Amino acid sequence: MNTTRRALLSATLLAFALPGASFAEDQILRFATWNTDPESIAINQAIATKFEEANPGVKVQIELYGDGFDDKLTAAMGAGDAPDVMYMWNYPAYKDALMPMDDLIARDVAELDLDDIPAGLMNISKIDGATYAMPVGFTTQVVFYNKDMFTAAGVAEPAAGWTWADLRAAAAKFRNADTKTYGFAVDAKPDPFDFEQFFWSNGTKYISDDGKTLDGYMNSPEAAEVLDMFGDMIKTEEAVALNIGDDTPGSALFKAGQIAMFQSAMWSKTGIDESGINYGVAPLPAFGDKPVHSVIGASGISISKDTKNADLAWAFVKFFSTPEAVEMRTNDLPIRTSVADKLGLATDPIYKPFFDMLAVSNRETNAFLKNPNWGQIQANLALAIEATMVDQGNAKTHLDEAVAASARFLN
Amino acid sequence: MVRTLTYGALIFLSALFIAPFLWTLLTAVKSEAELVAWPPVFWPENWRWENFAESWAKQPFGTYLWNSTTVVVLSTIGQVFSSSLVAFGFARFRFRGRDPLFILLLATMMIPWDVKMIPLYMEFNLFGWINTLKPLIIPAWFGEAFFIFLLRQYTMTIPMEIDEAARMDGANAWQLYWRIHLPLMVPGLVLVGTFHFMNAWNDYLGPLIFLNDQTKYTLPLGLGLFQGRHDVDNIAIAAITVILCVPPLVLFFFVQRYIMDNALGSSVKG
Amino acid sequence: MTDARRISSRRRPGLAPWLFISPWILGFFLFTLGPMVFSLIMSLHDWPVVGERKFIWFDNYTTMLTQDPRFWESLGITVKFALIFVPLNIALSFLLAVLLNVKVRGTALFRTAFYLPSIISGVALVMIWKWIYSKDYGLLNYGLSLLGVEGPNWLGDPHWSIIAIIIASLWGLGGTMLILLAGLQSIPKELYEAARVSGVPAWAQTVYITIPMLSPMLLFTFITSLISAFQQLTIALLLTKGGPLNSTYFFAMYIYDNAFKFHDMGYAAAMSWVMFLIILTLSLLVLKYSAAWVHYEGEAKGGGNG
Pick from B189, B83, B203: which is nearest to B136 by CA? Predict the structure, then answer.
């Protein structure tokens, strides 16, 4: 290699060695996301850009995994090539590849202002006492309802403290075979993670807290009651069944005015706003006088255990949790109470039910945190739910089958 | 009479085969409301051609197009060349170990993708090929079992007299391959090229696993991003699908007569 | 081996054949052997995606065969699918190829029409079929209603769902059809001429000329259909997600779930090896008995063809 080339090579190597050297390549931080809608993608991009502005020489490489998020992440982690930071919610599955953040949080506790974040949200990623993510947004579950349809049918709007009996009575009034309208929609293939909230609200749960017993929980009378109620709603046509052969999403039906009430969360809100429907939001209905308990869907941002840019990654995670960034995330609810207050969310009639649900939903832990084999058990449970919806009843039989089939995963 | 029946059957079957595609086209030009309307709207009121431009603009499809084209063109050339080479080797020579090796070749077709995926990922990562287009192009230059098998079968329908005549004229193995068999194999080669083109053009899993950032994405990945967990952008999917189908269709329409080449029939004397 | 026609064996082949097949051999070592061996090793371990890996000998295999009902269920569904799909695939492709072989005007257009479905892939293909199969809004039931028949809930009824998958898979037979068509077209016309002149009826021409001459290609489509039937994943994954009620839960899907949902790569690898061995055995059987019905023009067996 001649002298000029050697000089050039040394210069380049030197440039890499000197941190922050102006002619060095940008330091790249890989950030994996699961969003597919343009709004969320734009928000991620905006936050990343702001971070780049505050940190010259850094480039955030946003990787869109979309609906293939788990596939892609599994493959990358399995090969030891995980991105530096990523959105995360399935901590049990991935925790061995994530960096515990407790030391970092303790070190920067003042900067993070943890009092501003509800404790329940900080707990979403705690397994065996280690924290694996900073929360970035959350949603609870509510019922959206079409105000115009209610007025036209002369039905009273849902009020706080309403029950499933109230909902069913209202739903029955909307059924119209000619226009194919219904009062409500029941999903035959719901996300079991979210669905557990109905078990909680009826005083039971999927699995015992120590993760060792299913019998008496998953197939308890209260559990069967929940499933039978939904199955019955399909039978009496109070609700249309979703995902039995047709995967038109409930949101599409609600936006087209085909259903009067739609049980969902923040992720549907933007679409509903765009559709122009005049809507209201109500908290989840209760089972008689039992206390309601919503599932908290919180997403966090985690750092890969093997990242080569640990400091930069943590800086990014911290940035994502600043009030400034939190405020930019309009696609779900802010994790910081200060931001919520600033935006007046706790009093806004559309947002208030979400926060009301958050306030009462701190008691229970999600099933997947309790048993490492939950994935396989859940597959059996999902089958039982689907079977009950297809049968429009018969919950106990199906749940018993699920419990029996899952026995070998309980060791 | 036979002709009319044939004609009738062809038209009927074609309609069956085309109908779903037509449905996609109609969906691509509908409005959102018309998608979920009841009774179902088959013929949209206004043909919203702007849906195509709008859907195209929702993601950097121009970049995707460039990446897709690069991958497809380079890998197809490699595939056709290498597969025909290997097929000739298996079809025209007798050598020790040929049959077991051929069985091995067949066996590799049976390996499910999920199992190769992660080890392959690790290997490509070692080479530094992840997040480049290389994993999608380079393996094609080593031939693929399916195409090798196909071309071998095809080669074996070519009578030995042709080889013998060429050998009499003093041709060596390479010349036999390059000058005699390749031209005779044109229908098979076009088939292989077309098939590989389709596979590479529509490949979703490969790019999903091996590419990380958007600047490297291929068209099917972009299409896949319209399918989210909670919301599905049906119109964009339909529009982009229609656009995606155009190049393969055009390609096929023009090359199909080469598949139908009848030159071989006339070169054999009964 | 003293047959005068076997010219290529008269001169010992030497290095030449190896040079020709070297690209594949290299590729095999680079891209196939490594992953295969690795997956075999994985199958002997308790191998989660991330975390500790434990060597457990053949436990994965024994669990699969003795304790896992879902293994047998999914295998059964896959076999059922293959039994129906493979013969239909070949028969229909053959039929279409024969139809297209007749000289009518516009064959180019018809060929394109039949091949069109194979051009559409994955996500898009599934979107299309969902619209076709939708119970209330779908094209198929609409068409049936015009004939006065009420269509079933194709994707929601466990009895019909597998038929739905079969039809959707068959729709992509354009590729197989093309292969057979290319084969048909390379059958020398002189053979049919000679037969017709000798007064051989059309059906006999098909049985004694067409099928034997086409048999190498038929063998090809048989084996490849078999393989793809056993590996059926994409359509079921996207169209029915294995439902309803696991009625279309194919073997390949169970492997996929084990790898990507349950993160049990060792078990998934073991299942893949079982699938591999099944397909391999079946294909070898087909190959072994193929000598009885497959005829190669390019491997003359002592005088004449046929």
Answer: B203
pLDDT at A25: 66
The sign of the torsion formed by the CA atoms of C38, C43, C48, C52 equals: negative
User: Could you give the CA distance from residue C219 to residue C222 in angstroms, rounded to a whole number?
Assistant: 5
With bands split at pLDDT 50, 70 and 90, how would you rate the model's confidence at B196?
Answer: very high
Residue C119 predicted with pLDDT over 50? yes
Q: Which stretches within A154-295 are classed as H helix?
A: 164-172, 192-201, 221-235, 250-255, 269-275
Question: Among C192, C266, C216, which Cα is nearest to C44's?
Answer: C266
Mean pLDDT of A46-69: 90
Q: Which residues contact A23 (CB under 8 A, 6 or more apart)?
A: A15
Among residues C296, C123, A234, the alpha carbon closest in space to that of B219 is found at C123
Alpha carbons within 13 A on the beta-carbon side of B203: 25
Per-residue pLDDT, A90: 85
Residue B206 is predicted with a pLDDT of 86
pLDDT tens readout for residues C201-234: 878 888 888 888 888 889 889 988 998 898 888 7
Cα–Cα distance between A196 and A295 in angstroms, integer? 7
Phi, psi of B234 (to 5 degrees): -60, -40
Q: What percent of chain C has pLDDT over 90?
A: 20
Question: Are the CB atoms for B124 and B130 separated by under 8 Å?
Answer: yes
Identity of the residue in C24, C127, C186 whose CB atom sits nearest the CB atom of B143: C24
A286 φ, ψ (degrees, to nearest 5): -100, 160
- Residues 170 through 199 of chain A touching chain B, CB cutoff 8 Å: 179-180
Asked if the model's pLDDT at residue A22 lies above 50, the reply is no
Q: What's B51-95 look like in SS3? A: HHHHHHHCCCHHHHHHHHHHHHHHHHHHHHHHHHHHHHHHHHCCC
| C243/A69 Cα distance (integer angstroms) | 22
Q: Tell me the C-alpha distance between C186 and B184, whole Å.
A: 10
Which residues in chain B touch residue C128, judged by CB atoms under 8 angstroms apart?
Answer: 20-21, 23-24, 241
Q: Which of residues 217-236 of B touch A (CB under 8 A)?
A: 224-232
Of C231, C250, C234, C251, which is closest to residue C242 (Cα–Cα)?
C250
Q: Is C117 on the interface with A (CB under 8 A)?
A: no
Measure CB to CB from residue B92 to each of C8, C175, C231 and give the nearest one: C8
Chain A residue with Cα closest to B232: A249
Q: Cβ(A295)–Cβ(A171) under 8 Å?
A: no
Note whether A37 contacts B: Cβ–Cβ < 8 A: yes
Would you state the pLDDT for residue A174? 94
Q: Would you say A361 and A291 are in contact if contact means Cβ atoms under 8 Å apart? A: no
Residue B256 has its nearest CB partner, among C34, C111, C189, at C111
Q: A301 to chain C, minimum CA–CA distance in Å?
A: 18
pTM, full prediction = 0.82
Rounded Cα distance, C240 and C251, in Å:
14
> What is the Cα Rg of chain C in Å?
24
Q: What is the pLDDT of residue A127?
A: 81
